[in-house]
């Protein structure tokens, strides 16, 4: 008993590293399946590709419980205000992945009805091209996002909340 | 009116009944692929559809179609058409009724006759800007409420115009 009090175990780490390590390994996605990209997103979550390997298996149905917004599919102009609102309902820190050509740039629909890229209304962190992207493509994008998170400095945001965007 | 050869006695009866009752209101009759079409005067549309539904037993409105003709169709024709596809069962026969309309010209709503027309008329209003007189709830059905223009008109640019671009 007295031994443990005398020599408690401890780990030394930079606070930034500790925070980003926990953030990037427990990304909870909010899967907004808007079109056929949702099928590939679901396949990524299923057993064969198993997104749980990267700590992302908890697809949430509510934006309040998620910190990664995967925009999977075509965003129409009618849907755009709703997407923006869902993103605003997510708690910081939060990230956005534009999955597929439609979300990246409007894709094969350069029309009056389709938003020409979700980055017009959201700050997109990762763009994933493909029509639809394969599960490998989505996982590659998510691993890139993890690298980006690992390089970020969340403690700076404590003093300056606008630092991230 | 040029008389058309109709080799189906069941549809011939429909034509006879319409011509006997409305005469000059039937502007044109055509028969192709064993189906019968009438181009009718706009003012008599409700009465004609009413006769087809109650007396002739065309109990279903299969579809309503709006058309914007890119080139002028000739003497007496107008820019837009609205096409009513009627269906009768038992019997499995179809007839089409067409009215011609100019830009901004209203046509009577047929919702009192066929409830199925309610959303179809909203769709045609949304896409072509054709007003339906007497419709209780004539709002856009596909495009956002603040959208400007009517996308299926032939002079509407595919990419959209300045007025309809998103404002967030």
Tell me what the structure shows.
A four-stranded parallel sheet of chain A has the order 1-2-3-4. Chain A is globular. Chain A has seven helices and four strands; from the N terminus they run ααβαβαβαβαα. Chain A is of the alpha/beta class and 165 residues long. In chain A, helix 3 (37-45) links the parallel strand 1 and strand 2 (68-72). By secondary structure, chain B is an alpha/beta fold. Chain B has a single domain (9-164), classed as NADH:ubiquinone oxidoreductase Nqo5 subunit (Beta Polymerase, domain 2, 2-Layer Sandwich), CATH 3.30.460.80. Chain B has three helices and seven strands. Chain B has helices spanning 9-22, 45-54, 117-128, and strands at 26-32, 35-40, 60-68, 80-88, 93-101, 107-108, 132-133. In chain B, strands 1-2-5-4-3 form a five-stranded mixed sheet. At the A-B interface, helix 4 of A face loops of B.
How many separate helices of chain A?
7
Distance from first to last alpha carbon of chain B: 56 Å
Q: Number of helix segments of chain B?
A: 3
Structural class of chain B, by secondary structure, is: alpha/beta
Total domain modules of chain B: 1
Strand order across the biggest sheet of chain A? 1-2-3-4
Order of strands in the sheet with the most strands of chain B? 1-2-5-4-3
Largest sheet of chain A: 4 strands, parallel
Following the backbone from N to C, one meets helices and strands of chain B in this order, namely HEEHEEEEHE
Topology overview:
The complex is a heterodimer of chains A (165) and B (168).
Chain A: H1 2-6, H2 15-24, E1 29-33, H3 37-45, E2 68-72, H4 80-89, E3 95-99, H5 100-105, E4 126-128, H6 135-150, H7 154-159
Parallel strand pairs in A: 1-2, 2-3, 3-4
Helix pairs in contact in A: 2-6, 3-6
Chain B: H1 9-22, E1 26-32, E2 35-40, H2 45-54, E3 60-68, E4 80-88, E5 93-101, E6 107-108, H3 117-128, E7 132-133
Parallel strand pairs in B: 2-5, 6-7
Antiparallel strand pairs in B: 1-2, 3-4, 4-5
